[in-house]
Write a structure and sequence with these properties.
The structure is a single chain. By secondary structure, the chain is mostly helical. Helices cover 69% and strands 0% of the residues. The chain contains 14 helices and no strands. It has helices at 7-22, 32-49, 54-70, 74-92, 96-118, 122-143, 145-158, 166-183, 196-210, 216-244, 253-263, 279-283, 301-308, 314-321. It is globular, with a radius of gyration of 23 Å. The relative contact order is 0.11.
């Protein structure tokens, strides 16, 4: 870990990250952010540890590329990581590590696109995996062009020095994750699950520095106490929500909605849902248009214009979806 390469700090950080994610908003659901944090941590680890070998560079590039395919806001993080690998190459007076980082990132994208290309669906890959999410991410950057430009310039200036300290690299990467979330619109609370690996590392480093001689048993007690506290607060919050919704939370609103629509004969039929779209799965039904797989896409022109054209409007999307 960054806390003196301590195994103890690593164990603490792992346990704390599990706690933070578990009790985060929607942390127990299968969210893209939950799936992204392991590759994110692996991709950033060689940079945080100051490793400059080619294997570490390849691991970093591949992991961050995998994450970027899932969450386009992390393209910003991958860019900052690339700058840090370039800085490492300047320090080592060899560009090989930076080149391997970039090559590994591109290789992951090409490998992912290959099945689409073999099936003659490369345009689908480009539109759905590259263009639409990228346009959405860029829209956020355009909204905050000043902060995003300042962040990139600041990272480049910081790495011009002969060496960047371990903690400087840590805060730079953590800040890039946070800023990428803000630039993409801030959005739902579960977006912030992406920052928890860094939060856990910082907390673990703080515990190790505050109590360097604490035994493993005491570490377990600290983590167990935090888990109990988090679980108690989460249960109390859940009980209050269940009371407020008069039992709707017992099976989840999406499940209850699906049961209601199923009783009305909607199973297997196209359904329009602007919330709780997991009900599609329970009903074995498809959205009325692929763009509306996630309901909020109807209100994101930067996404549906990739499919319908640059001049498309929400009204045109609705006409297309409802075949009016």
């Amino acid at each position: 870990t960054i806390a003196g390469r301590s195994e103890r700090a690593g164990r603490l950080a792992g346990a704390l990250c599990i706690i933070l994610v578990t009790f985060a908003s929607r942390g127990q659901a299968t969210m893209s952010e939950t799936l992204a944090i392991a590759p994110l941590a692996l991709g950033c680890a060689p940079i945080l540890l100051g490793r400059g070998d080619l294997r570490s560079a390849a691991l970093s590039g591949a992991c961050l590329s995998v994450d970027t395919l899932k969450l386009k806001n992390l393209l910003f993080v991958a860019g900052v990581a690339g700058i840090l690998w370039i800085a490492r190459s300047r320090q080592d007076r060899s560009a090989r590590a930076a080149i391997v980082f970039a090559a590994a990132a591109v290789a992951v994208v090409l490998a992912t696109a290959l099945p689409y290309a073999l099936e003659g669906e490369l345009e689908l890959f480009v539109r759905s995996v590259v263009l639409a999410p990228f346009d959405y991410a860029i829209a956020g950057v355009r909204r905050m062009i000043g902060p995003s430009s300042a962040a990139v310039v600041g990272a480049a200036m910081l790495t011009r020095s002969s060496g960047v300290s371990r903690w400087a690299r840590f805060w730079l990467l953590a800040a890039s994750v946070a800023l990428s979330i803000v630039l993409s619109g801030g959005g739902s609370a579960h977006y912030w699950i992406q920052i928890h690996p860094f939060t856990a590392l910082a907390l673990a480093a703080g515990i190790v520095r505050a109590a360097p001689r604490l035994s493993p048993a005491m570490d377990l007690l600290v983590v167990g106490g935090l888990t109990f506290l988090a679980a108690t607060l989460a249960d109390a919050s859940w009980i209050e929500r269940a009371k407020a919704f008069r039992g709707l939370e017992a099976q989840g609103r999406a499940r209850r909605l699906a049961m209601h629509l199923d009783a009305k004969g909607a199973r297997g039929q196209p359904v329009v849902l602007f919330s709780d779209h997991l009900a599609h799965w329970w009903l074995e039904s498809a959205p009325i248009h692929p763009i509306l797989t996630h309901p909020s896409n109807a209100f994101r022109p930067e996404l549906f214009r990739v499919v319908l054209g640059e001049e498309a409007t929400i009204a045109e999307l609705m006409r297309t979806a409802f075949r009016l």
